[in-house]
Specification:
Strand content: under 5%
Mean pLDDT: 93
Helix content: over 70%
Radius of gyration: 19 Å
Shape: elongated
Number of helices: 11
């Protein structure tokens, strides 16, 4: 029951945000009582904190697998990131490009002033870890010779991380996922044209 509650809670939070989410909605969907929800999680905030913790950790694990892989190129890392985002997008837009919200963390950031300190701390932690992971990916691209040694690492990290942070806003404002994919491609193509190394990466020689 706890897992069923969290699944429904996540879906409702993504669709309606923190302010538009209630125990009443969950109890109606699951056919249970509000008392049962309080029994498992204590309060709305307790439930949201646990849902956010699980979601954030799973997201970080997925990004960690993508961005710390030393065997993939920067383009492959970006492609993996786009594919992951598209899967999540389709979960909340199953019939196509409806522009519906699909990212829990981006949705909650819109309600930051109403969140508990624990929720805000988790969102800040995720932001910092995203930057660390993307930095690791950019550093690998430089060290392997894929990008030039004098590439402005931190400026590239800022560009890439901000797309991750605002991906949900891009699809919402434009009403379709393709705009996000185009933004990733435009950014990556610009980076490649400006900073691709003229030497052959060590991996490519083998």
């Amino acid at each position: 029951m706890r897992e069923r509650i969290k699944v429904v809670a996540e879906e409702l939070l993504v669709k309606f945000g923190y302010r538009g989410f209630s125990f009443g909605q969950i109890s109606e969907i699951l056919g249970t009582t509000r008392a049962n929800l309080h029994y498992h999680f204590g309060s709305k905030d307790g439930l949201v904190e646990e849902v956010l913790e699980d979601y954030a950790n799973k997201t970080l694990d997925a990004y960690r697998e993508i961005w710390t892989d030393t065997a993939t190129t920067l383009r492959q890392k970006v492609e993996g990131t786009v594919q992951m985002a598209h899967r999540r997008y389709l979960r909340y837009n199953p019939t196509g490009d409806n522009g519906e919200p699909w990212s829990l963390m981006i949705r909650l950031r819109n309600d930051t002033d109403a969140l508990t300190p624990k929720m805000r701390t988790k969102l800040q932690q995720v932001t910092r870890e995203f930057e660390m992971l993307v930095r690791a990916g950019v550093r690998t691209a430089i060290q392997s010779g894929e990008l030039a040694a004098d590439s402005p690492q931190e400026k590239l990290v800022i560009q890439l991380v901000n797309i991750i942070h605002y991906a949900g806003s891009v699809t919402r404002d434009h009403g379709h996922f393709g705009r996000l994919a185009d933004l990733w491609e435009a950014t990556l193509s610009t980076i490649e044209r400006a900073y691709t190394s003229k030497k052959i990466p060590a991996k490519a020689k083998a």
